[in-house]
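On clarity, I found the account of how folds are encoded harder to follow than it need be. What matters is that the chain and its backbone geometry are given together, residue for residue. The format is easy to grasp once an entry is in front of the reader. For illustration, here is how one protein appears when written out as sequence plus structure tokens.
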Amino acid sequence: YTGEVILLKRQQTEGLASFLLEYNVPLAFSLAFFLSLVIIVWLSRDITRPISQLAKTANAVYAGDLSSRVTLRGDKRTLTLDEEDQGELARSREDDLTRLVRTFNTLIAKFEEREKQHSEFLSNVSHDLRTPVTSIGGFIEGMRDGTIPPDRYPYYLDIIKAESGRLEGLVNDLFADAGHEDTGSLRQEVFDLYELICQVKQSFEPMLADKAMDLEVNFDYRYEAPLRAVGDVAQLRRVLNNIIANAIRYVPSHGLILVGVEVGERLITVTVDDSGPGIPAEDLPYIFDRFYKVDKSRGGEGSGLGLYIARALIQRHGQQIEACRSSHLGGARICFTVARP
């Protein structure tokens, strides 16, 4: 009977082992496969999420939204390449995906800056086109209505020709910008500052006549003409045009604008005083800001770009420009420096 008992126990053990082998091993494999699949999906989503963001941001940029940037999961910072990053990039521990995001964001930022400069340039040149167009129109109208006598036609036709040349130069700048050429380079040369101021004064005669205003030039007669200066003549002409046009806009009828020249050892200081209302003290720090206007109620007059452009051009020459209250005429005073040869 004992042998029979042992035989029965062996059959039960073998049955249990067979049961475990038949059911538990496949279950364990299934469980392992499921867990592996979950891990793979989780890892793939962590990898593909930034790629999806890259694609989404690229589409937004293509649609014109240059403010879009890619941010990595758990990091709200906008990753870009600054100078330090570029120098250390080869030794960085960042993965390739993070480097790609940095490079992508940097590319968008540079493109956005280029578009901003392009838009600003177009605004500036469009603003400066108004003065020669107004001058030419005023002279032609004066010839038609008899205000300018026939014997003075040659004189004013020369001015029209000069203003047409200015227009051509501005249009050439527009085409150069469209071709992505360097429109900000200076064409330095020695020129007669007295002659330049007189030419600018002549170009404003129609605008001055419309408001019955006077524009006087006060030279430093201790120095004989020509008064030699160094700079980009076309750009310095734009500076004078913008400052004087701004003065004409704010000075009332029958007012006065006075252009003065003070000669120093290395620099020449040009001053433009007017008899207008002047610049309030609280506005002086912002007078050269883009689109800033002292008189907010005159929204339809001027674009707020004239003095902003003047400052940018003077700074491009490495010189100074400032505004204050005129001690001579009681209005505003704008003064800037020009280098001597």
